[in-house]
Design brief:
Number of strands: 9
Distance between the termini: 53 Å
Largest sheet: 7 strands, parallel
Shape: globular
Number of helices: 8
Radius of gyration: 22 Å
Strand content: 5-15%
Strand order of the largest sheet: 5-4-3-6-7-8-9
Oligomer: single chain
Length: 287
Amino acid sequence: MTSNDQSRGHLRVVRGGERPAASAGTVTYSAGQFGAMFDLTGRNALVVGGGGGIGGAIAQALSDFGARIAIADISLPAARTIASACIRAGIGEPVAASLDITDPTAVNQTVSEIERTMGTIDILINSAGINIRKDVIDYTPDDWFKIINTNLSGVFFVTQAVARGMLARGYGRVISIGSVSSLMGHPQHAPYAATKGGIAIMTKAMATEWATKGVTINAIGPAYTVTGLITELMANPAVYQGLVDTIPMGRLGKPEDIVGAAIYLASDAASFVTGQTVYVDGGRTAD
């Protein structure tokens, strides 16, 4: 065998310039064709609840991939803080807005103002959410409606307001933050679980309705993630360890664990994905 012979049995090194005959049914693609699948340059993204841990992390990740960001949060100072962290060279300045998503009139007004300021919204992240932990018999009607109105009705109102423009243009990506509670029952979570189960099935219903209209609707289902929602649980070492023990990977999630799924679902890489809840949970729902 000569030093130039690169073939050994069934193994062959293909060198630059070679154009072997294609096998029947084989499809080849241009070099670099997939290199920009996650590029969000030129896209505008609205992150609702973006002043918090998961929403804030997703907003900053979207910025890294080229999207211009609007942050809407019930806390305007929190929205401004994350908006400042989303400043990137060559991308339009971020926008910050105060928003109570339980008020449909305020939602419609804020979405219109954001679109007048930065242009059409291509990507919507629904990450606003609350929880109140009690035994089922101890929840008051006010507790129930507060959780339902924020976690489920609010997501519906925001999606409805933003989707009108998306449908008119024939393009949009909607991503809502669900939970492993979309699938699994946990004590002292009944209203919260109702909202997250609702997000999962509402995602499917919207996805089928808009499947031919260029708008995809998906959700992400985290396990317990280190954010303000579980601060009180983490303060108790025994409770904290109990949470960790439910996750096969042996740790809680971090906001940055969620951003990869969000970027994927917001990008052209997920153009054929709709109606799904992607569980980012350290194996929690696999156990």
